[in-house]
Amino acid sequence: MRSELRYEIDKVTAGQRLDLNLERGRIRDELANQNAETNNLTNKLDREIHALRAHLEAAKYDVIKYCIGTLVSICAVGIATVRILL
């Protein structure tokens, strides 16, 4: 009787251990998948941020270029006006 009881307890314990190990492996796989997805999203965000920074730099240089062109044009018109008046 004792041996049968011990056998049943060992069988239930082994089943629970197997279930726990399977659950732990499933959770480990799920965490690995989430980590890979997080890394992919991080890389995508880094690429988008880099592209936005490059676009912002290009726009900044365009604004500076047009400001300098406007100032040079205003100076040229001012000098021409002074020459005409004198």
Q: Can you offer a commentary on this structure?
A:
- The chain contains one helix and no strands.
- It is rod-shaped, with a radius of gyration of 37 Å.
- It is mainly alpha-helical.
- Helix content is 98%, strand content 0%.
- It starts with a helix and ends with a helix.
- The model has no long low-confidence stretch (mean pLDDT 94).
In short:
The chain crosses the membrane at residues 63-85. 98% of the residues lie in helices and 0% in strands.
Strand segment count = 0
Q: What is the percentage of strand-forming residues?
A: under 5%
Radius of gyration: 37 Å
Helix percentage = over 70%
Low-confidence stretches: none
- Tell me the number of helical segments per DSSP (H or I, 4 or more residues long): 1
3D shape: rod-shaped
Distance between the termini: 126 Å
Helix-strand pattern, N to C? H
Q: How is the biggest beta sheet arranged?
A: none
Mean pLDDT figure: 94
Q: Structural class of the helices, strands and pairings?
A: mainly alpha
Oligomer: single chain
Which tags fit this structure?
86 residues; mainly alpha
Set out the fold topology.
Layout lengths: L1 H84 L1
Pfam family, one: CCDC90-like
Protein name: Protein FMP32, mitochondrial-like
Subcellular location: Membrane; Mitochondrion
